[in-house]
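Please decode residue identities from the backbone states below.
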């Protein structure tokens, strides 16, 4: 059988389509209620708005809500200046863009904050809403770019770490069964899956040799009767199920199963399916577009390593 090139674009399109665009989240901090209300009205259509009336309250908001794209803070506030508050957010949220609003000539404080990278820009009061919206728009774009680069770096490190683990695993395993078990654990942990199955295949039939990792409390779908697995073997193509997809050929099979996403990758060696790699998640949102590309990339190394073990 000639191998069919997996349609990664089609699978990626499903994953892109399952997610809705989320408004960037910004935090506005000002001790004057009228200013907070004005900031809320200025940005409520384009952004998710969090509000705080002091630096201390804002720190509590960030503790509860997590990272935001942009923080807009007044400079002159009781208890804590805006620059002091912003400096406290840098260690935990280095990518967040920080903007200061000031009606005073606190030049020394502002220069120090800008030079140390704690403040992206300062706006003088009274501010022009149009100008402030442009600044915040550029700030959110800068934040998105920083997060994208960080995400790409994390992905590159994940791929390198995963490939390294797959290359080194055979050295510490004395049997194929032990290698399959170790591999299943590696993939489950790397991709945050609740279950992972690596099972050998011969003549398009599942064989007894397999490695399984299942999170406590999760009931894995039996591989023998699973249509994703059988189709992956016969077509030599990646198979994907998403519970969020409105049109899915596997919906009936997964109707009563607590599976949000399931992907099966055939491991091909010399144009033959030698094994399958199966991962499941409770929530479809856990599986990302980049995961599929990474899984496809490392599946070649897994197929090769498995062939060397047998």
């Amino acid at each position: 059988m000639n191998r069919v090139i997996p349609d990664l674009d089609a699978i990626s399109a499903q994953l892109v389509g399952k997610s809705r665009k989320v408004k960037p989240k910004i935090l506005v901090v000002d001790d004057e209620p009228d200013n907070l209300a004005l900031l809320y009205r200025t940005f409520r259509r384009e952004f998710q708005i969090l509000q705080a009336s002091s630096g201390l309250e804002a720190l509590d908001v960030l503790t509860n809500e997590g990272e935001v794209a942009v923080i807009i803070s007044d400079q002159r506030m009781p208890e804590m200046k805006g620059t002091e508050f912003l400096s406290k957010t840098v260690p935990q949220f280095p990518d967040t863009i920080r903007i200061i609003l000031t009606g005073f000539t606190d030049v020394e404080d502002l220069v120090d904050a800008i030079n140390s990278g704690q403040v992206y820009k300062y706006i003088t009061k009274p501010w022009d809403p149009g100008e402030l919206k442009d600044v915040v728009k550029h700030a959110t774009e800068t934040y998105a770019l920083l997060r994208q680069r960080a995400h790409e770096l994390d992905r590159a490190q994940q791929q390198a770490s995963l490939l390294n683990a797959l290359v080194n695993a055979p050295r510490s395993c004395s049997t194929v069964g032990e290698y399959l078990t170790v591999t299943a654990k590696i993939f489950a942990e790397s991709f945050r899956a609740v279950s992972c199955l690596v099972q050998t295949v011969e003549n398009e039939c599942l064989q007894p040799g397999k490695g399984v990792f299942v999170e406590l409390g999760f009931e894995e779908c039996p591989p023998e009767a699973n249509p994703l697995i059988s189709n992956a073997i016969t077509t030599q193509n990646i198979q994907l199920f998403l519970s969020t997809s409105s049109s899915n050929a596997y919906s009936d099979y997964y109707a009563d199963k607590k599976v949000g996403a399931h992907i099966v990758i055939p491991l091909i060696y010399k144009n033959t399916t030698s094994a399958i790699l199966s991962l499941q998640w409770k929530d479809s949102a856990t599986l990302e577009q980049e995961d599929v590309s990474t899984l496809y990339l490392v599946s070649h190394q897994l197929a090769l390593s498995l062939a060397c073990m047998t």
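Observation: Confidence is low (pLDDT under 50) at residues 1-6.
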